[in-house]
Amino acid sequence: MDLGPYLLFASLEGLVHAAVLSLIALGLSLVFGVMRIVNVAHGEFFMLGAILTWWVSNFVMGNPALGFLLALLIVPLVVGIIAMFSDLLILRHLKYDPEVTIIATIGILYIIQQFALMTFGPDARPVEQPFNIRLDLYWFGFSAYKFFVIFSAIILLFCVWLVMAKTKFGLILRATQLDSEIAQAFGIPISTVYSLVFGVGAAIAAVGAVLIVPIQQAHYLMGGEPLLLAFIVVIIGGLGSLKGTVVAAMLIGISDGIISVFFSPNLAKILATLLVVVVLLIRPNGLFRTIRI
Amino acid sequence: MKKILKANISRRKLMKGIASVGSIVAMPGFVSYSQAASSSPIKIGFQVHRTGIGAAYGRWYDRTTQAAVKIINDSGGINGRPLEIIAEDDGTDPKRGAEALEKFANQHDCDVAFGTLFSHVVIGSAPRAGELKLPYFVVSEGHHVASGMLNRYTLQPGITDVKSQVQAMAPFVKDNLGKKVTMVYPDFAFGHDHRDYFSAAFESQGGQIIAKVPIPPTESSFSKYFPKIPRDTEVLYHVMVGPAVLTFVKELGEFYGSKGPKLFGFIDSVEAVDLSTPGLEFLDGSYFWEGNPRYAQANQTDHDKFYRNAVGVDSNGASVSDPKDVSTYAHMFGCWETLHIIKKGMEKSGYSGIKDRAKLIEAVESMTSMPLSQAHPQGAKIFNGKTHQTFGHQYITKMTNGKLVLAHTTSIEDTFYPDEVDYTKQSF
Amino acid sequence: MRKDLILHLSALSVLLLLELLGIFSEYHQGNFARILVLAAYGVGYNILFGYTGLLSLGHALFFSAGLYASGLSIYHLDYEIGQSIILAIGISAFISSLIGFLALRTIGVSFMIVTLMFSQIAYLCILYFGSITRGDEGFVIQQSSRIFFSLDLSNPTIRYYSALLIFSLCIFINLWIAKSSFGRVLVAIRENSDRALMLGYNVQSYKLLSIIISGTISGFAGACYGILFGYVGASFATVSYSIFPLLWVLIGGAGTVLGPLVGAIFMFYLIDYASDITDAYMIIVGVSLLIVTLFARRGLLGELRYRFFKWIP
Fold this sequence. Notes:
A: mainly alpha, 2 strands, about 75% helix, B: alpha/beta, Rossmann fold, disordered N terminus
């Protein structure tokens, strides 16, 4: 393929990647920013979203779009509730101590993973695309559904921004994020906010999962890699910055695609990883820091 | 089965707890215990990928193994003793694999160890097998055994290795598909074996490898690598492993539609994948290497019928209880055949207990021809005792109307290559 | 003698006696040999995390640097065991000073990510240079190369004593650091690095030194692991092997000398016994981790120290 179309193709692929990544990272960033804890089980909530989507779409007969829409409604809700329960039952009692929370969320990770293995099995299972249209872009083919993924992610990110910037709930979140003690003094029920944030964070990751499953299959180990990437995105973007998260996700998604055009695949991975290091060494607090760590 | 075992173990543990291993043997009670062992079960430690990236293979390796053990036990066991499988998860991790072997040898007093597919687990475990003097029968298809990297206690008698498989494909690809090949393979040792051995064999046939596209093992989306495939590619040789294989083939289809080069793939790319999955229609007309044809063929042997039935696989290669649960048919026969080889080896050597392990290995090393039979449903094989590696027929199938139909069967000779090691020269 | 010295000497004596009196079955002897070397890795990790308060997610890099330095020099260059270990120590000291120098430009979570990324790069490099490293499959260090001054290190008893020696060496270094003024500065940095800075300590160079010591011990443990167990592979460079020492240290008790050992024993036997009971052993592991965090959040040894024995270093 000629360089021009190849770059276009790699950028498009990178965009799809970036779209889903920014959703997962957004969920992590919310939890990280507001509660100041690293949720190692975040990737497992993403995985849970994917396998639940598979179940829902298998349950609904007929047009795959129907199952997909149903999954888009139900799955984030279910995942969010599960996450809230794990907060109520466990994390709350740890007083959100950052180090202890790491072990606890590793424990949750094991439990979710084993549960998925026992019920869903070790196979990667596909979910049919809600619409199966292959766009022939002259030089290469591209699935119309992938455009839909990019589009949905943009809308969702916009909605999150609206909530954060324009609603009372957003205000409460921002206040808690800046200083939870003062927020509490002003009568904000911190523990309820924390549970909600933990649930919403997982639910956003689950939305990302619903969107990606028709492209990448559901598998019980699929949570590991997105967790690492999302983690990187959050740090590079700067903790607590929605804009930063999106920019960093684009940077990582697209650079991964573009670098792979010019170098052998494994070398490209090495260089893309190195890029992250360089960014952080130059700007240790991320690109758009809004709160102090 | 595990419960009975527990009772044994805890008793033994207790004994070991009160005295050192050396003094146990001297205890009067122990002697009568080991004499009574003549009718006790033969214990086979089964290393299995229950978790980790190999879990899809592990589950079917497990089912095949259980089926083979049942058949062997129903027909009287080995030397009148029943077989007992002691399964241990290796987590598809080399360190855990080695620990599993220690557990088999020292905790469960297994007679032999067996199992496991992923090469790095085998290579990580094999040194321990050698040190523990525990015969270790692997079903991994890696070239690690025959390359001389391992030791006298590690054998691969039930499945051909990747070097054989790959070189046997070269003539067919050149004669039937095209002379300009691009290879897409995972960028780690398994893929590198494909790259090196196929390109050597193909080029010696007068073909040409025009591009090599390695895919990083951590990758979960593949489209961005496909433009690296040159336009004048006549044949695309693809092989992929791990949980992302379905994404790989689907994206390949999306990228090329119906306009792409001819496809020749290793079944690994779609192993355990339901071929009627939407998005895989483009594979129709493409060719696959299969270790053992997934779909029951027109010339199906009675032995394959028997084996398929015993494991619980239907004529489409899926579980009889769930048609969506597709087996790893191209590889798992190795477990069945290996267990039958262990049986034959034990019978031949008059194996009576752990002290006869070396005799067992010598007995297996002396095996050569293994004819097509109930014990070898995949086909006849020739075992090379020096390299501890078996050689056998390879199958090439063509996807026709959603099913894989046999197009070519290679001879056993096609898989031969010069010996790279003589394990029989190593001491026990 | 000091109380803490007595404690650690008696812990080591117990480990020695277990072997001398033949109380170990062969199986547990093998397990403990493995655990001791891994605990030595944990000790290295603990110096940076438990004492200095820097959370690294990239220690697999140091472990595998030692593993591969010794493994490759034996495999390709026919080095003797002693030479290869010295080389491994040198290389891991060099790599940890380089990584430390760069990564210390960041703090907190950025430090975690930078170390994680460096370790990821190392993992990818192992795969990239597959023709030398044999990639993910790794390679075997043959029994014939694993002889140290005519001691066959693949012999279970010799292996156990070697592992115990390696571990003892590491904890004495740790004990010495914990009691030295250097160690006290590290703890001061952990508790409040701004204050340490104000008191006139060059915090950056203390941190750097801590990374170098930590990384070198980890590399040493890696080299010993490869030599004692005969296998070198890329799986030891994956993220999991950066998380393991963190887990051992947190479970055993961060900033306690014996914590990594307690944590490693706990994790190993937890998985070992759980997998005997059920195939779904990961659930048991997960639940146990939750129980530990809920009821012993300072780690097992850390909790003991907090409640009863304030003097444990």
